[in-house]
């Protein structure tokens, strides 16, 4: 269940290496490998673009060839946009993430250079092809975006799988339970008491239906007791006479 | 099942608007709205950064306020990184995408300015908070990355749905969609107008917080337009003098 290793193959710009590091660390990925970076390594442009993800850059390892970079990896994915004449299984980021969580061993994802992507040789090294399904009429993912989508999916599936390392927002976050029925009844009774003298429930023949409608509207939100208290305050305020202004 | 509208609130750099457009179009999103962009609109830096996603920029609409930008939207999501003292449901991009596919009506996702995110007032306008679950020790998503993750999830769930799996029946299945934002604003404005002369919003120093609390309570249920009409009727009734009994 270790996070995948992100392998940047012959990247051109240090800035993009930094952005990839930033994208990774957002979702808990820390292991980056760099194959034959065009401008050498370390690259002074990488740090500023990493926006604080220095740990990823500091620990990045550099290799001469793609084969060396993935020598210790059991599962290798090659990211490509276009279909290739290679007969390998093609998966999306979501399915790749599921496979990573289901298969033991070390996982690596290869990303090609900005201008041209992975070479056919690099793709051949991989067991599977990872393709982000994009708009067929407009495919324009940059390197860091491709990385962030893969990192995001890995962490999303990790959370699904119950590895509770990352923050998981839920519907219930901070939310209080709905107020007990008697508080809600108190609110509805209060409002009905105010509406009664206004003739709101007339004609008598429609009175029951009108009450049901009103109750339906007020029951829908499932207000908690603080919210009910706020609304009771509103009603009490409306019952007061106007202030001298 | 229309794609969500991406609303950029007070964005600073044209370049980031362009990048957001590019991120959107990769996953088939085309409708962008911009609230009060710092450097005006159109912005010459946006086009080059859009990398060909000109159709998104050409069709982008500009608004003075967030409220105007979402006036016709039934479902509004506010993206935030941090926890807020606001009691609204918090969902991730995946759950948001599922909700968008399950609920009819127009969906909008608010993104705040690069430096500071959404203001508390903007968050208050939304029914739900959308938080990308990121590494608690390193959260550093930029605007275009936040947009691309939401766009990606929307298209991923759309494909799931197209594959025949999705459109899970919800309890709101046959229900009417929430009333558009301007109807809700009308209700809130009506009530505020009644409460004002009662001194409900005093002391002045607490006035904004009190308005936010009230709005939060009334935004929670997602009332449909019939329900809003019922409540407008209630308020009008309360404004009348008592009947002779």
Structural class given helices, strands, pairing of chain A?
Answer: alpha/beta
Please list the strands of the largest sheet of chain A in the order they lie side by side. 3-2-1-6-4-7-5
The CATH level-2 architecture of the largest domain in chain A is identified as: 3-Layer(aba) Sandwich
Largest interface: A-B, 64 and 61 residues
- Output the radius of gyration of chain A: 29 Å
What is the succession of H and E elements of chain A?
EHEHHEHEEHEHEHHHH
Can you tell me the overall shape of chain A?
Answer: elongated
Distance from N terminus to C terminus of chain A (CA atoms, Å) equals: 67 Å
Helix content of chain A: 40-55%
- Can you summarize the main beta sheet of chain A? 7 strands, parallel
GO biological process, one term (chains A, B): methylation
Domain tRNA/rRNA methyltransferase SpoU type (chains A, B): 5-152
Pfam family, one (chains A, B): SpoU_methylase
EC number (chains A, B): 2.1.1.200
Characterise this structure.
Chain A is α/β, with parallel strands linked by helices. Chain A has 2 domains: 156 residues, SPOUT methyltransferase, trefoil knot domain (Alpha/beta knot), CATH 3.40.1280.10; 59 residues, no CATH class. Chain A contains 10 helices and 7 strands. A 7-stranded parallel β-sheet of chain A has the order 3-2-1-6-4-7-5. In chain A, strand 1, helix 1 and strand 2 form a beta-alpha-beta unit. In chain A, helix 5 packs across helix 7 and helix 8 runs parallel beside helix 10. About 4% of the residues of chain A have low confidence.
């Amino acid at each position: 269940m270790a996070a995948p290793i992100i392998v940047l193959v012959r990247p051109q710009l240090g800035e993009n290496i930094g952005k990839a590091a930033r994208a990774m660390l957002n979702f808990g990925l820390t292991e980056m490998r760099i194959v034959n970076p065009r401008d050498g390594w370390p690259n002074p442009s990488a740090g500023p673009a990493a926006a604080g993800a220095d740990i990823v850059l500091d620990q990045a390892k550099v290799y001469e060839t793609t084969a060396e970079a993935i020598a210790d990896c059991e599962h290798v994915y090659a990211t490509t946009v276009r279909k290739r004449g290679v007969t390998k299984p093609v998966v999306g980021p979501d399915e790749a993430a599921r496979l990573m969580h289901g298969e033991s061993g070390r996982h690596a994802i290869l990303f090609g250079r900005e201008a041209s992507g992975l070479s056919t040789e690099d793709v051949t090294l991989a067991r599977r092809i990872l393709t982000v399904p994009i708009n067929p009429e407009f495919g324009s993912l940059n390197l860091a975006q491709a990385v962030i989508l893969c990192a995001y999916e890995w962490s999303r599936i990790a959370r699904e799988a119950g590895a509770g390392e990352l923050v998981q927002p839920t519907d219930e976050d901070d939310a209080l339970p709905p107020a007990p029925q008697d508080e809600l009844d108190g609110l509805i009774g209060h409002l009905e008491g105010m509406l009664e003298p206004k003739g709101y429930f007339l004609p008598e023949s429609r009175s029951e239906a009108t009450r049901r409608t009103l109750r339906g509207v007020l029951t829908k939100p499932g207000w908690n007791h603080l919210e009910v208290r706020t609304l009771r305050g509103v009603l009490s305020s409306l019952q007061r006479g106007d202030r001298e202004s």
